[in-house]
Amino acid sequence: MKTGIHRPLAAAVLTLALACGLAPSGPAGASEAADPLGSARWGEMQRQFIAGARFVFDPLVKVSAPELAENPLQVPVSVDASALAGVEEVIVFADFNPIVEILRFYPEAVPASLGFRVKLQQSTPVRAAARTADGVWHVGGSWVNTAGGGCTTPSLGSGSPLWQAQLNQVAARQWSTGPNAGRLRLKIVHPMDTGLVAGIPAFFLEEITLRDAAGQRLLRVQPAEPVAENPVFTLGGLGHGPVEASGRDNNGNVFSTRIAP
Q: 190: number of CA atoms within 13 Å, CB side?
């Protein structure tokens, strides 16, 4: 599969039509809609992640990412489906990555919005599919061009003798006042190895849960291998009290920490 794939002009025209509300806006006939990003792999993505359910390409699902990503190991992505009511699950995936699923998140008591960084192997659409309570998947996306190689480059952590001592250490900040009030940023030390580098097995965080001080679950995130090394997650819509963060990786290592504003 060739690298350096660029979004065709036709896809740009379709994206403009989508933004102007000319594309289908509801489930009826949505499965027949043309992919606004013009990806040759959209059919495979649809079968893998939507599996025959109703879906619609929806401008209310916003995926923000650089059009040109200079560092394929750390591509910033922000997904915002908070304009939709009743979002129960969001899947983020990249059509042309060797491991296409990036992560899933479940916004239980916070808006359906999450920022993070990803590894990209080549130029690709990065998409988010948000499932609402009526079972319909709402799909948005953005095309990212990159030189590639992000998924087959060894992590810095895997070659460092210090990573075992620092594994799953958490650094976090929660804002309670000012323009960022209700926002939280969470960084976890982890190599997030994809398993695609010879001699380095897959080693990644697979579950992160945030709860409020009363134990109510706010958000659950299920990262996959393409999430960037030492992942940073950003979300908003929190209250003013402390947050409990806990998680585990695919080798059974766990962490738990309390984040106070």
A: 33
CA distance 160 to 191: 10
75-80 and 113-118 beta bridge pairing? antiparallel
CA distance 119 to 121: 7
Residues 6+ apart with CB under 8 A from 176: 182, 240, 261
Nearest C-alpha neighbor of 126 from the set 18, 60, 39: 39
Residue 153 has phi, psi (to 5 degrees) of -105, 130
Number of H helices, E strands in the chain: 3, 16
Show the domains of the chain with their CATH numbers: 9-149 (2.60.40.2470), 152-259 (2.60.40.10)
Residues with Cβ within 8 Å of 238's Cβ and at least 6 positions away in sequence, in order, are 110, 174, 182, 183, 184, 212, 218
CA 2 to chain centre: 24
Q: Using alpha carbons, list the distances in angstroms from residue 223 to 101, 133, 177, 215.
A: 9, 22, 29, 22
Tokens of 144: 């990212």
Instruction: Give CA angle at 67 (21, 112), nearest 5°.
Output: 55
Helix intervals (H) in 103-240: 163-166
139 strand-pairing partners: 57, 129
What does each of the 261 residues of the chain score in pLDDT, given as a tens digit? 333 444 443 343 333 333 333 333 344 334 458 999 999 999 999 999 999 899 999 999 999 999 999 999 999 999 999 999 999 999 999 999 999 999 999 999 999 999 999 999 999 999 999 999 999 999 999 999 999 899 999 998 777 777 788 999 999 999 988 899 999 999 999 999 999 999 999 999 999 999 999 999 999 999 999 999 999 999 999 988 899 999 999 999 999 999 988
Question: What is the enclosing helix (H) or strand (E) of 116?
Answer: strand 113-118
